[in-house]
Amino acid sequence: MTAVRLVVFADLHLGTKKAPGLRWAYEALSEATRRSPDVVVFAGDLLDKKKAVEADLADGVALFRHITEDLNLPLVHVWGNHDVGSGLLPRFPDLPGVHRPSGEGIEEIRVPGIPLVFHAVNVIRDPDPRDLLENLPRVEEPGHIGILHSEVEGQYTKNPCLPTTLEHLLSRGYGACLLGHVHTPVVLNEDPWIGWVGMGKMLELQVPPLP
Ligand SMILES: [Mn+2]
Fold first, then answer.
1. Ligand 1 is a single-atom ion; what residues have CB below 5 A from it?
2. What domains can be seen in the chain, in order of their start residue?
3. How far is the CA of 8 from the centre of ligand 1 (A)?
4. In degrees rounded to 5, what are phi and psi of residue 167?
5. 150 C-alpha to ligand 1 centroid (Å)
6. Long-range contacts: 192-199, Cβ < 8 Å, 24+?
7. Which of 38, 144, 149, 205 is the most buried (most CB within 10 A)?
């Protein structure tokens, strides 16, 4: 494998009419998977904390199952502040092929058959001002990817969420840092790609694999 193909989205906010919604997600995934990606990443806020109800939780589970079962792709994701704030997460099941941090800290996630290491953190409260990302491991080899639901230097958000800085993210040596939380698509750094995917955007990215 000379490059790993990622499809990345974030901030779906199921339940609110202000988001592009489930139909958008299915169509955008269908379009993006025509180019044979290896793995799907979701960077948090599947559910809207104010509007999501039980049916939206079921929609989120069905979407994740669609990715792993119909599209036959592994999914790596983190929870965002809206997911936590919805109160619905205790009823979200573990699904085969869906990978996320299991605890409260930074975790390394490896997916069978995918030559990458994902460094991922769940948001655990809303807001989540923990100064945790200073402990993101620094690497010297290709194939490491950050998945974070974060603010960067307080830009574009008033809601403290796993704060970090661009300088710090760049210093980790990752092949990409895929961010959720800010709804406008913002590229903070082109190469390696660091930025917010944004709401209603399906990002396609190729990254070098582990040696
Ligand atoms: Mn958020």
1. 45, 80-81, 181
2. 4-207 (3.60.21.10)
3. 16
4. -60, -40
5. 8
6. 194/166, 194/169, 194/170, 196/10, 196/156, 197/8, 197/9, 197/10, 197/11, 197/43, 198/10, 198/11, 199/10, 199/11, 199/12, 199/13, 199/19, 199/20
7. 149
Tokens of 114: 């995918």
CA dihedral 145, 67, 44, 146 (to 10 degrees): 0
Question: How many A from CA of 82 to the centre of ligand 1?
Answer: 6
